């Protein structure tokens, strides 16, 4: 009889625990709404960039430009007043922002990390420019990407740049 009550209790408890929904699970309605917003905002960004590029061609503004110091700018939209807004790369500033410089040789942590002996992976919009001075002997292209991409190169330099030129 005791075994019967224990079995019934176990069955009741197990069905209760399986019936509960984890609070962190996103219900489908919210997931659908997030997907809709993502599509809507992507469409808006593409439309804004297209309009900005049309204005840039009329005004003679740069749409994308690479500078001798390795920085790149790219037009993304116009302000409400019609002025161009550019994304720009600041790789050394990015390394400082995330604290990477504290890990480098001479950094404040004393760890003096160079990356030697480690393998890191990066997937980006294209290949890193393996011929860049910061990558000598440090890059193996694995995914078949053929064209180098400035963003991938910047991210790669943050991850595995040799430090030949910290501003690079």
**Number of strand segments:** 3
Strand order of the largest sheet: 1-2-3
Regarding quaternary structure, what we see is: single chain
Percent of residues in β-strands: 5-15%
End-to-end separation: 78 Å
Largest sheet: 3 strands, antiparallel
Order of helices and strands: HHEEEHH
What ranges have pLDDT less than 50 throughout 5 or more consecutive residues?
1-21
Helix content: 40-55%
Which SSEs are present, and which pair or pack?
Layout: H1 2-19, H2 28-59, E1 64-66, E2 72-78, E3 84-88, H3 91-97, H4 150-160
Helix pairs in contact: 3-4
Describe the structure.
The protein is mostly helical. Helices cover 40% and strands 9% of the residues. The protein is built from four helices and three strands; from the N terminus they run H-H-E-E-E-H-H. It has helices at 2-19, 28-59, 91-97, 150-160, and strands at 64-66, 72-78, 84-88. Strands 1-2-3 form a three-stranded antiparallel β-sheet. A hairpin with a 5-residue loop joins strand 1 (64-66) and strand 2 (72-78). Helix 3 (91-97) packs across helix 4. The longest helix has 32 residues, at 28-59. The relative contact order is 0.09. Mean pLDDT is 77; it is low at 1-21.
Overview in brief:
The protein has 168 residues and is mainly alpha-helical. It has helices spanning 2-19, 28-59, 91-97, 150-160, and strands spanning 64-66, 72-78, 84-88.
């Amino acid at each position: 009889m005791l075994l019967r009550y224990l079995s019934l209790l176990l069955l009741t408890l197990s069905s209760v625990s399986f019936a509960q929904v984890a609070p962190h699970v996103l219900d489908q309605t919210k997931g659908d709404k997030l997907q809709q917003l993502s599509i809507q905002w992507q469409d808006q960004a593409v439309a804004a960039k297209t309009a900005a590029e049309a204005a840039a061609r009329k005004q003679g503004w740069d749409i994308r430009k690479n500078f001798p110091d390795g920085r790149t700018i790219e037009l993304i939209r116009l302000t409400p007043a019609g002025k161009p807004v550019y994304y720009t790369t600041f790789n050394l500033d990015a390394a400082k922002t995330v604290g990477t410089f504290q890990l480098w040789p001479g950094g404040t942590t004393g760890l003096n990390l160079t990356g030697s002996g480690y393998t890191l992976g990066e997937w980006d919009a294209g290949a890193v420019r393996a011929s860049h001075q910061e990558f000598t002997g440090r890059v193996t292209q694995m995914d078949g990407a053929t064209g180098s991409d400035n963003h991938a190169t910047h991210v790669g330099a943050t991850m595995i740049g040799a430090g030949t030129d910290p501003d690079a």
